[in-house]
Amino acid sequence: MDPYLRVDDLRVGFTTTDGVVRAVDGVSFSVERGRTLGVVGESGSGKSVTALAVLGLHDPRRATVTGEITLGGRPLVGRPEAEVRRLRGRDMAMIFQDPLSALHPYYPVGRQIAEAYRVHHPRAGRAEARRRVVEMLGRVGIPQPERRHDQYPHEFSGGMRQRAMIAMALVNDPELLIADEPTTALDVTVQAQILDLLADLQAEFGTAIVLITHDLGVVSQVADDVLVMYAGRAVEQGSVEQVLRQPQHPYTWGLLSSVPSLHGDADADLKPIPGNPPSLIDVPAGCAFHPRCRYAEQTGGRCRTELPELRPAGASGHRVACHLATEDRIRSYAEDVARVGVAR
Amino acid sequence: MSESLLRVRGLTKHFPVRGGLRRAGLVRAVDGLDFAVRAGETLGLVGESGCGKTTTGRMLVRLLEPTGGSIEFAGRDITHAGRRELRPLRSDLQIIFQDPYASLNPRHTVGRIIAMPLEVNGITPPGGTNARVRELMELVGLNPEHYNRYPHEFSGGQRQRVGIARALAPGPRLVVADEPVSALDVSIQAQVVNLLRDLQRELGLAFVFIAHDLAVVRHFCQRVAVMYLGRIVEIGDRDDIYERPQHPYTRALLSAVPDVTRLGPAGRIRLSGDVPTPLDPPSGCRFRSRCPAARDRCAAEEPALVRRDGGNQAIACHFPESGPLGAMPANGTDAEVPA
């Protein structure tokens, strides 16, 4: 089956007084219907910029978007704004991180969702739109949807607002849903509810989901495939088993070992990645991760001068951008595991 | 048993609300807490938003005045101590804030920021203020040469180090850390947690560590108190809380944390609904409206925080559960991850 969303060599640059910021620099991925791609990385890695590019939300006066984005066989880059607008909200929709700033405080929640519906269903009347919105509010687990329909965002709790955002995103049955840190602002017990809800809705409608998050725990729970980004580039991608169980990029190792866990030795020190993520104005030459990488000296200087390409590594579909030879990588990783112990 | 450095009894903070046409009410942000922290001990306060953990932290350092109960620090009652009475204690009692961007004055150099608590408390360290500032910067992993720079020249993680150096400057015995790492990227978060751990051990500091991230608290704290709607529902030694939780809320909270070492959907204990408003908490046990095990007695009678089986773990529940968190290993297997 052809993937519903295909992104090929996406590049997004912003012109600033300090030069061109390459926020996304050659990223490719695809998502099939009914599957979830987790995009992980730290702040400034280009995750959100990628999402906005897919939705066509970058201002053409400030951002240059190149590469190919295909949605259900239709190319999006270079398509006239009016046509992208017809797809946005109907075929692809977005859930934002902060539901409080994404909902307008002056209008009742139901009316805002109805607006999203009527834009794409111009012949639907008020009554029909209302029926549809109440149905969606009920479906995302909001109790008393009839009453809630006429309430304002401030009358909703954080979890309820995020449910309302999901109802708005799904009101037109989109085939692609992009969720940018959808649970970061929520408490863990509410986060669990929202992740369950997204999984249930996906099973029902076969939606393709791109989930952007910094939380590897969330990714391990809901993603089928994972894309790890660093300084605007993909450093590792593959299935969730490949990337989280047999990680091959030193940055992925660093991320995994720096996350505290509820299991294993609580007295062991965390193993942070030294240094800070780079500024996109001044990305290190060669591999952008080399100043923070323990293994950068093992390649005879290549890491400092030559940009590593994303290449197949081991099992099918698993790809890694690293100069270390595959055997060296697997050995180094095995040594690391042996040195610090498997369980944490 | 050694003497408590900090002892809190029945600590309460109610905020009055004047609602437009509605009747005025009381937000019961913190409603009767009892706990103690010994010298050199780390206590974690965990819970979801609105449980009162930040309000508690602010009362401990007396940025807020309690409306009930008492706070005893180093044998002195500081519950309603005025500015002048607090002054000699200020250097013993410090706070680290959550937001490394908002908590540093952008017009002051970091050297001046770190020196401020020394100046305010009239402390002249042996060797002079400048030498002490440089020593502190070194201690928290900042380059002492940068004492003349401004906060905007530092990254988020470095700014949090400045905040830590400032809290350590007067040589405190107790530090209240309010979500000190939650605004930081994962790789930076681990750096700061390790730093705080090293400092705690090296300097023998007592900590009240406030956080919503249960995994971070597990790596930092010896004892943990779980809060819900202004009350402590369970308190005990770290391993008891994480390995043998007995309150249904603690169990639900722990099982809701997505853990990177487990793939696939977790067998969670699902809680329905949201945390109720502290304006009008449920009768009896405050957790009963979301509790999977609630019975009639829970609505009628508020459970007291009591120790069971003579252990160190106290639980506020009529029907505590025991045994391992059965639901957790479902579908999950351990991942091999270098730590």
Automatic annotation (TrEMBL), chain B:
<dbReference type="InterPro" id="IPR050319">
    <property type="entry name" value="ABC_transp_ATP-bind"/>
</dbReference>
<dbReference type="Pfam" id="PF08352">
    <property type="entry name" value="oligo_HPY"/>
</dbReference>
<dbReference type="InterPro" id="IPR003439">
    <property type="entry name" value="ABC_transporter-like_ATP-bd"/>
</dbReference>
<dbReference type="GO" id="GO:0055085">
    <property type="term" value="P:transmembrane transport"/>
</dbReference>
<dbReference type="GO" id="GO:0005524">
    <property type="term" value="F:ATP binding"/>
</dbReference>
<dbReference type="InterPro" id="IPR017871">
    <property type="entry name" value="ABC_transporter-like_CS"/>
</dbReference>
<dbReference type="GO" id="GO:0015833">
    <property type="term" value="P:peptide transport"/>
</dbReference>
<protein>
    <submittedName>
        <fullName>Dipeptide/oligopeptide/nickel ABC transporter ATP-binding protein</fullName>
    </submittedName>
</protein>
<dbReference type="InterPro" id="IPR003593">
    <property type="entry name" value="AAA+_ATPase"/>
</dbReference>
<dbReference type="InterPro" id="IPR027417">
    <property type="entry name" value="P-loop_NTPase"/>
</dbReference>
<comment type="similarity">
    <text>Belongs to the ABC transporter superfamily.</text>
</comment>
<dbReference type="GO" id="GO:0016887">
    <property type="term" value="F:ATP hydrolysis activity"/>
</dbReference>
<keyword id="KW-0813">Transport</keyword>
<keyword id="KW-0547">Nucleotide-binding</keyword>
<dbReference type="Pfam" id="PF00005">
    <property type="entry name" value="ABC_tran"/>
</dbReference>
<keyword id="KW-0067">ATP-binding</keyword>
<dbReference type="InterPro" id="IPR013563">
    <property type="entry name" value="Oligopep_ABC_C"/>
</dbReference>
<feature type="domain" description="ABC transporter">
    <location>
        <begin position="6"/>
        <end position="254"/>
    </location>
</feature>
